Amino acid sequence: MLYQLKNINCRDKSAFFSQLIECLAPPSCERSLNPTFGLDKQVLNQFYNLLNGRELTVIVESEYIDGNYLDDYAFYYSKCFEPYGRYCKRVHFFLSEYTQEEFDELFFSDEGFTELGACYAGYVVARPIPEAFIGKTCLNIRLLLPESLSVFPTLQTIEVNLWGRKLDFMSLPFQEQDGVVSACATCSLWSSFHATGKLFHHRILSPYYITKNATATNPLHTRNFPNKGLTLTHLAHAIKSVGIDFFQAPCSELPIEKYLGKISGYMCLGIPVLLFGKVINSNGNDIGFHVVSVVGVKYLPEGESGITLEKDLGNFNLAQRYVESLFVHDDQLGPFTEYKLKRGKKTRFFSPSRATSLEFHCPNGQMFVVQHLVFPIYHKIRISYSQIFDFVCKMNDEIYSLKLLKGSKSFSFSWDINLTNSSNYKSNVLEREDLSIEQKRAVLIKNLPKYLWVANGSNVYHDDDEFEVVFDATGIHHDTNVCFVLPTPTALSIKDIYYADDALLFNNLPHKVQTVITKIL
Question: Is the pLDDT of residue 406 over 80?
């Protein structure tokens, strides 16, 4: 039978696991011989967390050709003695219960198919291999997690053709490692490439080719396949092999919010940042290196206190101090897994030279301790987050000092530093209600570089008091790279710190800071 329609019980966990595994299990697996097959898969547990309590109908395409698996099959599985198949299954999720007759009636009606599209939650490709059968998975996360506190800037448009009918939604592909062609780092790169490939127009490689390129410079006495994992050097080779640049930032004991700001800043453009670190089990034992891809961020509800910093940044605040969790594609735990930020005293798993302040609670009770942030980046984005951060921090301190000289203490800015492109920036300016038509026109007709850093500062004491400094992300390092400053019509508190007799104070400021403040005023 080429397809099946089934209703899945999402209210009982054991029933959900059993019924979903029936749909996903490879044809060669006789579950009657092994009734516990797949029940220990943590990826399925994540599916249950996302679908829990909902009505669910699945459509199973029994003979589906997946291009990513086909490469893996051609170069590895087809050469095995065991006759692994080349056909996959594709399982579609609809968040409603339908009978076969109801589904057919909706499918063959334009209006009815619109209803099906509104409850389409994505699909899972099931590979015909034992254990690691979860292949390309695209879930409609905005339908499954509609809460406004969760932000997913890395999502891409996924287009699905179901028997001639077209469906589209926003997601980022995921798959679990097979431990042969790909390990965790390969899967994380594969997910990230689906975002950077569309952003920077490079080829999106299958897992086999990612691992092959990553290990091309391995010593001759080592084996590349079966693959057990990639190092930072391997990640660099894999990223550069598709024509983009690689850089990594080691995590030390700097304030947590600075690292979160860096992750969020690059992710704003749609770049999934890779986290390279170690997994610590519930007994405190180091169980090995791991790599995940960051796809989204969740903020604390309004009114809750943010991160208490071990080392304060002085009067400089980042919006990322209110981050509660990161959403990651973890090939062991599943797509859009929530890593909760560990607060308070940090556990020391490493020597002081390798200590880190960035740790996360995983859903399975383990800890993930980040050692390096890895960024796949376009080569023309030359100015880094750290350079913008340092400049904005200096500017903030100078403005704050001048404000105190005037006897006012109701001044403290929270900064959000993000990477974007000129097209997206102008679209956002066009939609803003806090800007006058004249301000919008001045920005929209301005010739801007393709990539921009935008540092948005808002006074925590006055919600309507904010401005943003726009930097050229493609410039040279010893310049300010400031394109322009965009204040709101109500941004008065900064102007209030200057009077006619402030010329001497102003002239004592660094020249780069003078340039920006002049534009603010």
Answer: no
- Which residue, among 239, 211, 204, has the nearest Cα to 225 in the 3D structure? 211
Q: Cα–Cα distance between 387 and 477 in angstroms, integer?
A: 8
b/e 213-233 (16+ beta carbons within 10 angstroms → b): bbbeeeeeeeeeeebebbebe
Question: Average of pLDDT values for 95-109?
Answer: 93
Q: Which amino acid is at 205?
A: L
Q: So what's the pLDDT on residue 505?
A: 44
Q: Please check whether residue 90 is in contact with residue 127, taking contact to mean a CB–CB distance below 8 angstroms.
A: no
Mean pLDDT of 473-493: 70
Domain ranges of the chain: 3-171, 245-377, 385-520
Strands (E), 127-244: 134-139, 150-151, 156-162, 165-171
Confirm if 155 and 298 have CB atoms less than 8 A apart: no
Domain 245-377 has CATH 3.90.25: no
* CA-closest candidate to residue 418, choices 153, 172, 167: 153
For residue 450 the two structure tokens come to: 């393709």
Smallest CA-to-CA distance from 242 within 275, 216, 210 is with 210
> Secondary structure of 316-343 in the HEC alphabet?
CEEHHHHEEEEEEEECCCEEEEEEEECC
